[in-house]
Amino acid sequence: MQETADLVSIYIPTCNRFDLLQRAVASCLAQTYSNIEVIISDDGSTPDVQEKIQRLAAVDHRIKLVLTTQSFGACAARNKAIALATGKFVTGLDDDDEFKPNRVELFVKAWYVNPGMAFISANSCIYIDDSLKITSRKKNRLITLQDLLHTNVIGNQLFTLLSSMRAIGGFDDDLQARQDYDAWIRLVEQFGPGCRISEVTYIIHQDHSYQRISNSSRRVQGYDYVFKKHEHKMNSEQKASHKFYRCLYTENPSLWTLLPKTPLRLWPVAIKVISLRMLGYKV
């Protein structure tokens, strides 16, 4: 079958988080779709950590390495991996997250079932701590540029042609946060809409002491940069959506200060997120 002949490149940026990286890599090697290459792009880890990564890479011939002696940021790490990739398709994984075993297989199948799409994405579940898991159960749907200009309805990863990621120039090195959102806007703008499948195939871990690749101190810069870059494409509703999400995720507002200036269609989002925060969860 054509599907099993297609090599899929998976890039994983990392820096000094070897224990988490091991789990991420293991989830790639456990994929039911085996025709993959895993590109670990190390962004200036200490020499002892890089030695561990080299030993990890020796375990499986499908693992490739990009090592740097200094940190250039997550975008640069992703772009270096994309430059090294040789697959027909490409997708990403953060080093503190993991794939469910059938993620790549479902992506490849969905690609051929939905010809002409610019990308395929899927649902995720978030482990906030040992006692709480939030699962996204959104239905199959088409995702257009107009959808994306409201907010990042794709998430932090998608599956697309390697040639498409290279055509848009990869990730914007000037961004320290919201890099994925900016890249997805450019991808859909150039290649058209994509498709989200209903399956939950990605696990986001917030149940560890490390900070996420894009931490809270960088979020404001990310929101403002992306808004300035793409504002001219947005209508008034899309601009209002962007301002709402910026406030929700960078200013930590109370429900009573947020709701009066929130469009009614976004009240359920505000109530859900702030209620979880009131219970002590970091969302």
From TrEMBL:
Keywords: Transferase. One of its GO terms (molecular function) is hexosyltransferase activity. Residues 9-121 form the Glycosyltransferase 2-like domain. It comes from the Bacteria. InterPro entries: Glyco_trans_2-like (IPR001173), Nucleotide-diphossugar_trans (IPR029044). SUPFAM superfamilies: Nucleotide-diphospho-sugar transferases. Pfam families: Glycos_transf_2 (PF00535). Gene3D superfamilies: Spore Coat Polysaccharide Biosynthesis Protein SpsA, Chain A. This is Glycosyltransferase. It comes from Rheinheimera riviphila. The lineage of its organism: Bacteria, Pseudomonadati, Pseudomonadota, Gammaproteobacteria, Chromatiales.
